[in-house]
Specification:
Elements: H1 2-12, E1 14-15, E2 21-22, H2 24-29, H3 67-91, H4 93-116, H5 122-154, H6 162-189, H7 194-226, H8 232-248
Antiparallel strand pairs: 1-2
Helix pairs in contact: 3-4, 4-5, 4-8, 5-6, 6-7, 7-8
């Protein structure tokens, strides 16, 4: 009996070479039931780690080595700065304009120093930069903060020649007192006495007004046409980099 049972076992229970168990009943629908072997232990270098991703290719959103990601970071920084500027302009308009105008004034003097390649002492160079920073913050910003809205009230936008009238008023009425205050501040910070300051201003004021007509008339046609009054000073500062550097050159 036992021998017949032993001989019949291979008909009902069949074992494959890799350990799979197959029965006649199961083979009708599933021929083989496999028992998966346990996973092999991981050794460094044998299989790439799926968590390690190469992010050095351009534009793949990685660590910033690619041009696409750099552009995205630059645009994001610019948008964040612009959002900050508009928010601060609503909360503290005059202080915000003073900060930006001061920064642009100092940069303009640095540009003038590089163009002129001055060999003066470092202390004198720093003092000149401080002077133009102070003039930008304490003269340009407060003056234009009042002057630009005043122009809009003097010449209403409904006037078909409003832009041209504002340009003329700005150059002939606004610029002389502005340049006087601007030069007085710069010269005072640079150490000139009041008498010498006024004497120097008399020699340079007329030429500054005359040269400004050629430059700022073109710039202001664009500003008064396309730029809103609340951010007009910021764009004026951008063009003022060139102009203030021009004003600083004779004193370099």
């Amino acid at each position: 009996m036992s021998s017949e049972h032993d001989r019949s076992e291979p008909d009902s229970v069949l074992r494959t070479r890799n350990g799979a168990v197959r029965t006649p009943a199961a083979s009708a629908s599933h021929r083989t039931v496999s028992v998966a072997p346990p996973p092999a232990p991981y050794t460094p270098g044998s299989v790439p780690d799926a968590r390690i991703v190469d992010r050095s290719k351009p534009g793949d959103g990685g660590s910033g080595n690619g041009n696409g990601d750099d552009d995205g970071n630059d645009n994001g920084s610019l948008r964040a700065w612009w959002a900050w500027y508009q928010r601060e302009l609503q909360r503290r308009p005059l202080r915000t304009k003073m900060i930006t105008s001061g920064v642009f004034g100092g940069l303009a003097d640095m540009i003038a120093q590089m163009v002129a390649a001055r060999s003066a002492r470092a202390a004198h160079l720093r003092r000149a930069t401080v002077a133009y920073t102070a003039a930008g913050a304490l003269v340009t910003a407060p003056f234009m903060h009042v002057w630009f809205p005043l122009l809009n009230r003097i010449v209403p936008s409904k006037d078909p020649l409003a832009v041209y009238k504002r340009v003329v008023l700005d150059r002939l009425v606004g610029s002389p007192p502005f340049y006087f205050l601007f030069f007085f501040m710069v010269n005072a910070v640079n150490g000139l006495s009041v008498r010498n300051n006024l004497k120097l201003i008399r020699t340079i004021l007329l030429s500054a007004v005359r040269d400004g007509i050629a430059y700022w008339s073109v710039v202001n046609l664009t500003l008064f046409t396309y730029v809103p009054v609340d951010i007009r000073l910021l764009f004026s500062n951008l063009f003022g980099l060139v102009w203030t550097a021009y004003l600083a050159l004779p004193r370099t």
